[in-house]
Prior knowledge:
The complex is a heterotrimer.
Chain A: E1 4-15, E2 18-29, E3 33-38, H1 44-52, E4 58-63, E5 66-67, H2 73-78, E6 81-84, H3 96-103, H4 109-122, H5 124-128, H6 139-151, E7 157-161, H7 169-184, E8 188-193, H8 196-202, E9 205-210, E10 213-219, H9 220-225, H10 227-233
Parallel strand pairs in A: 3-8, 3-9, 6-7, 7-8
Antiparallel strand pairs in A: 1-2, 1-4, 4-5, 9-10
Helix pairs in contact in A: 3-6
Chain B: H1 6-10, H2 35-66, H3 73-88, H4 95-117, H5 120-145, H6 152-163, H7 166-175, H8 183-205, E1 219-222, E2 225-228, H9 229-251, H10 253-263, H11 265-270, H12 275-297, H13 307-321, H14 327-347, H15 352-358, H16 360-370
Antiparallel strand pairs in B: 1-2
Helix pairs in contact in B: 2-9, 2-10, 2-12, 2-13, 2-14, 3-6, 3-8, 3-12, 3-13, 4-5, 4-7, 5-6, 6-12, 7-12, 9-10, 9-12, 10-12, 13-14, 14-15
Chain C: H1 2-16, H2 25-50, H3 58-75, H4 80-102, H5 109-125, E1 137-138, E2 144-145, E3 148-149, H6 153-175, H7 178-184, H8 190-195, H9 200-226, E4 228-229, H10 236-249, H11 254-279, H12 286-300, H13 306-312, H14 337-343, E5 347-358, E6 361-372, E7 376-380, H15 387-395, E8 402-407, E9 410-411, H16 417-422, E10 425-427, H17 440-447, H18 456-460, H19 465-481, H20 497-509, E11 515-519, H21 527-542, E12 546-550, H22 554-560, E13 563-568, E14 571-576, H23 578-582, H24 585-592
Parallel strand pairs in C: 7-12, 7-13, 10-11, 11-12
Antiparallel strand pairs in C: 1-4, 2-3, 5-6, 5-8, 8-9, 13-14
Helix pairs in contact in C: 2-6, 2-9, 2-10, 2-11, 3-4, 3-5, 3-9, 4-9, 10-11, 17-19, 17-20, 19-20
Amino acid sequence: MTETLLAIETVSVAYGKVQAVRGVSLDVKAGEIVTVIGANGAGKSTLLNATIGALGAQGAIRFLGEDITRLDVEDRVARGLLLVPERRELFSTMTVEDNLVLGGFRVPRGVARDTMAEVYDRFPRLKERRDQLAGTMSGGERQMLAIGRALMSRPKLLMLDEPSLGLAPRIVADIFRIIADLRAGGVSILLVEQNARAALAAADHAHVMELGEVSVSGPAAELARDERIVQSYLGFH
Amino acid sequence: MPADVPWIKTNPAAALARSEPSEGGNHGRPRAVDGTILLFLLQDGITNGAIYALLGIALVLVFAVTRVIFIPQGEFIAFGALTYALLEAGRLPGTVWLLIVFGAVAFTFDFVAMLKDGGGVRRLAKAALLDLALPAAIAGTAMLVAGRGFGPLAHAALTLALVTPLGPLLYRVAFMPIASASVLTLLITAVGVHLVLVGLGLAFFGAEGVRAPAISDLMIEAGPLLVSGQNLAVYALTAASIVALWLFFERSLWGKALRATAVNRLGARLVGIRTSFAGALAFGLAALVGGLSGILVAPMTTIYYDTGFLIGLKGFVAAIIGGLASHPITAAAALAVGVVESIASFFASDLKEVIVFSLILPVLMWRSLTQTHVEEED
Amino acid sequence: MNQRLALGTFAVLLAVIPLIPGMPVFWVTLLGNVGLAALVAIGLVLLTGVGGMTSFGQAAFCGFGAYATAVLTATHGWSPWQALPVALAVSGFAAVVLGLITVRLSGHFLPLGTMAWGLSLYYLFGKIEMLGRHDGISGIPPLSVFGISLADPRAAHYLIWTVVIGAAILTTHLLDSRIGRAIRALRRGQIAAESFGIDVARTKLIVFVYAALLAGLSGWLYAHVQRTVTPAPFGLNAGIEYLFMAVVGGAGQIWGAIVGAGLVTLLKEALQRVVPAVFGTSVQLEGVVFGIALVALLQVAREGLWPHIVGLLPARQRAAPKPADLLARRAPVAGTDSALEIGRGEALLVLDQARKQFGGLVAVNDVSFKVRRGEIVALIGPNGAGKSTTFNLITGVAALTAGTVRYDGVEISGTSPRVIARHGVARTFQHVKLNPDMTVLENVALGAHLRGRAGILAAMLRLDRRDEARLLAEAAHQIERIGLGEHMMKPAGSLALGQQRMVEIARALAMDPELLLLDEPAAGLRHFEKTALADLLDRLRAEGMSVLLVEHDMGFVMGLTDHIVVLDFGTKIAEGPPEAIKTHPAVLEAYLGGAA
């Protein structure tokens, strides 16, 4: 039995009186890539933001067996749960290196130094641009920096919100290669994507969200073959 | 010649003086404006401007990190000046009691928050240490030191130790509970805090004004100008503070964390930087800078419990010119504000406040037109 | 009825208080002070709570009114009533001058600006020879009405409170009108308001001047009740107190202003008298108590007290509007085929090499396409392709870097959303921009703003009821049309997101547009809602309307549209009928590329 890292149990999120997520449950086990796909406004990002604690949620969220539903974002980060948000949220007027340094804010200095070397090994591009301001980089580089910054906290589970958003097809392919590499390196991933085809190809397990609810769940390969899902989310044929 | 404009010599910080409408009429209108007078006005303006620069930078810092437009920054100056001047006069300043009261209130807030969220003994111990023990220790030291004839340096250090913790404690009580509120709500809160601090200033320091002795009797003749040791101290300390702040923000992890919070709050939280930590740190720095400004001002003019507000507002003019964002522009603007004020107080001393505050309007206008604001929906 | 009953009781109570035998004059005077403050606070509620412009400088306008009448009556011997129009004119003129600057300040710069001129004016009042400098002006004559002197506070009480209640009623009327909806749209959703032809800057200025006139009126009354004016009551601290009253009562609540004024005035009096008596100290703690109360209020009950007071009364159910005469329409009426067919097929909206750059980033790269009359055109593309920016270029929210946008042969690039709306272009927003506190009906009626006439005076005096009934009937009709009739009187914020999107469409239709611009209309809709939306758009097309929509849902787009334009990385990569787009290689690459 593999260990369950993250357990989201009947989580609901409301913006004022509007329910954006209704009773969603899902698990992420160690070493897994789990993806949540769905249309714009289906509540995917809301679910991730609630999981990291940036939004208040009803229901229970467990991480490594501990109930983290009421913890602050910062405490979830300290436990190894990291989010790379849809808008990246980089420190745009600071250098690439400072972004990474701050990524390691919650880990001891020595560990942060070693991790930075690893991140630079993984993303040589970031090393080349270490003194450049984050805001001046291209979309793909920014996505790499956002992932690199999250890796600085030595995450046990990395949540990626639309990592392919706004990137050229070639860069998207790079990003998905990085995701596969990360899993190989022992990081579990919860991936939210509109690019359903790529997400299903990368993931072990998938959930489809519609109007705030999970409508279909199953092994990613199976969902990729499901005619209805292909129709709705894999573009048109 | 100085003899023609005696107020410049006797009161080099005339502009910092109390400026109620009751203030006297025209000070001997100049027969002719010669270069010397302009030089005097320039020097006077730059001295005041240096202090406004410190204030402006503190205001920018607090706004960037917490989005609080910190109207009461001036009160930190008043408290710093009064504390230092009273210590120099061999008396125990009211700051001692103020600090203990603030700590007790902050502890109450922490205690209630803990009852609500849980958190156990460690959290309680930490709160007790920071809110109760630390202020008590500082207050105790002050009681031991006050009136024993220690020199200005010890008094200055003690002043900073007394004033600085007021910043984080104030943040804890007034701003942290509504940290995510709109800028407007935070601004109204800041105005409320200003009222409270002025009232407390009166209660803890009394209505009488005090003035500290000059830091040194040094007088250097530089052409037609007399540069006092006090002036030099203001220039040196302002420059040193700005360099120190720059190093802090560029080199230290905490400084970078503050910048990160200012650039992107959500991003900062996502790497584990606690917003409340950053807020407390920013307020601490603001109080430290305020206390320091107070020490510098104390020998230059008589300080009353409510003097800080007007001084602070002038720092504000500078901070706004800097768009509440840029430290260098703020510092430069502060010097300009000082000079404009100095010139205005010479040619139209009656209207100098009117002129200085009216100057904000075109700046705000320009800022509104050049800075794109996201529609804030609260 | 309940509200009228409550108001009547309040008025009777006020009328009786001075008549109670043994009632000390002191209390009547205090009540008069409450009224004077309430008058300012009512204006501030409109300005700050409703209009979203926080002013710390309101006391300065009292100063204008008070000083104007003081100079005219005490120095020049005018009668107070002769001086009244001048006092109001002076306050109003000052408000126009300051307002022209202030309402253009954005975000938190606005309150800082009010602080700046509030302080400047306070110092100015104390420096001007004619205004008696710091000592002010004394010897101001008391008011008299029909020969009855109001020197006695008991007599003045009636005048003050008549004015206060009158102002509150007129202001309430104003808010419940066409102009009132525009005012209420100021705080949330200025972009939406501009898109329906509301001149936001002008509306803000109206509110600003209105609030200043109430303050000037209060200053005029104050001068003749107090019989002397000095700068002190017109400074920044007084301005803060007025704001405090508005916040205590509940920003946005007209009657709350009276409650706030009462509480704050009484509290202040108590602090000034009781605290020294009890603690035997001369130290004024009112500032401390005020400050703490303000900070605590914002932490505990940010919406103020009035909503809690109203919560005690039974809720008033507002009825749906009755049918009324039809509003004049722009386009030929549906069904008259001949008129319809004339224009069909001709180009209505033309983008020619439209370009938008943000610094070095090209968001929209020389895009050209047309929307013909009676056609539904879709703009599609992956996220970040520049669809929303293109939309903003058409609606005037963003300015073109190069190229042109023409509507019905007229170039509209470079004009404002307001002007574009007047051409007959209505839009919805990707992120819903409704005022969540206004009812669905009121939100939709905002869309019909340009089709109404009634102005501010008509609204205050309730001379606008016929005009208003038509607007509301039109709004109701559009709400029925999108199938949300049962939710008409609910606050818009209480609806599901999909329903709110439909309300936005109804609001756009209430404008009687020729071209409808829809930004992701189907997002968040359930399947049957999407079908209903498609049916509605199909019907509108049949009636001759043109539609341009941005949409992600391919099924929705393919089944409905006549023409599709595909953007990727800011560039148009394809356009044509749906069948051609489905198989276009560049489109397939953009949507599916990289993942294969």
